[in-house]
Amino acid sequence: MNSRITKSVLVLSLVGLSTSLFAQDVTPDTTKRFDKKNFRTWSIGLNGGMLTHYTPFNNRSNGDFSTPQESWGYGGYIKKQILPGFGIQADFLAGKVKGLRANVDGNTQQNTSFETRIDWSAAVSGNFTIANMSLNHKRTVLSPYLTAGAGYMSSSANTNAVGSAATPAGSTGYGEHWFIPVGAGFKVGLSKGVNLDLGYTVNFMKTNNFDGVQSAANDKFTYAHAGVEIALGKRGTSQLQNFSAIAAVREESAAESAELRRALSTSEQNRLRDQEQYAKDMGDEDGDGVANKFDKCPGTPPNTVVDGSGCPLKTPKQIIKEKVIVTAEDRKVVDEAIRNLEFDLGKSTIRATSYNTLNRVAALLVEKNFSLKLAGHTDNTGSMAINLRLSKDRAEAIKTYLVSQGANASRIEATGYGPNQPIASNKTAAGRQKNRRVEFSLF
């Protein structure tokens, strides 16, 4: 009953280890430097080799049988690589273990032999890869490894012995036993997905009757094998067990250092270029006080007064005004025209008697280019509106006449003030007469 339970537990553990055998990571491998890398972590192996009861740990008499006899065995495994240097594998083994010349009471029995048939054998082992500490190569070609684990097998021993009860002839029948496999070997990487596997395993049995002879010590046997390991997963990705993280870090650091040097070199070149351009932009080649970058009128002559954009200031053309000198004779001409100036009653019509003196004023304006201001005034008789209009009309009438005689209209100003600027009292007829006037002002 206990044997069945133990066997069931072992089978379930092996099934659990291999449930995700073909569930490989299909995420595309990336060539970006610090992105997550994908590896093949699952693999299967097939091997064949020699089984013998001889081991390096046998005593001087070589165990229960002194003469080993090699025989063929075969096996396989499924492995999950957890870390670059560590994986877990499930091993399977079958074959026969043979030996000659039994050792009985210190004596060698001739014509005796044993043959143990391994019906099935399953073990779970840790695989320690010790070569992926390479400093220079990310993918190692030669990968030594060590293995150690625990297993369970079913085997049957047949003995052919003579003359001793300790070595009875016959078969022990099939029995199931625990064993501890300890091994070493190396793998040669043929490609990213295929390795040549050469190994040697010593199996320490937890029974002293593996070879059909009961003795004081538990039995042992070895398996020297050669085989092929095939990695499962996305084609083109490397196996994790062949990957040296140290070499990868060194390579990535070297690449990053080279890239930083290139970036620094480029940055220095850009800095020098920008510095040169800044000196060029902020220089002042024409010396006008405006930097070249903002100078919209480069090349201005020295000592030129410029504006904020570096262009010469446009100074207004100097206007030279001649000083106007009004002589007493000129004023006499104007005063005479004022005294002789007459209008029709209540109108702005100039009477003909005034033309002669107005003509002299017009000639004066043309000759000396004088300016003339005409200011019309009335007394307070009538409404304000009528008086303002009448004073304005009379001043305009005089302007019109002078212009008709050749005077410059732009130099004559005509304004009407009505009764607002009297020079005498409007209470008397004489005063009102004085207030009804047109003033001439030369300038």
Report on the architecture of this protein.
There is one protein chain. The chain has 443 residues and is α+β, with helices and mostly antiparallel strands. Helix content is 25%, strand content 34%. It folds into two domains: 2-22 and 37-250, Beta Barrel (Porin); 328-442, 2-Layer Sandwich (60s Ribosomal Protein L30, Chain: A). It is rod-shaped and about 185 Å long. The model is unreliable at 1-31 (pLDDT under 50).
Rg, Å, rounded = 65 Å
Q: Characterize the biggest β-sheet.
A: 8 strands, antiparallel, barrel
CATH class of the largest domain: Mainly Beta
The helical percent reads 10-25%
The CATH topology of the largest domain is given as Porin
Terminal CA distance? 145 Å
**Overall strand count:** 13
Low-confidence stretches: 1-31
Number of domains: 2
Strand proportion, as a percent range, falls in 25-35%
Strand order of the largest sheet: 1-3-4-5-6-8-9-10
Output the number of helix runs: 6
Q: Pairing-aware structural class of the strands and helices?
A: alpha+beta
Provide a brief overview of the structure:
The protein has 443 residues and is an alpha+beta fold. It is 25% helix and 34% strand.
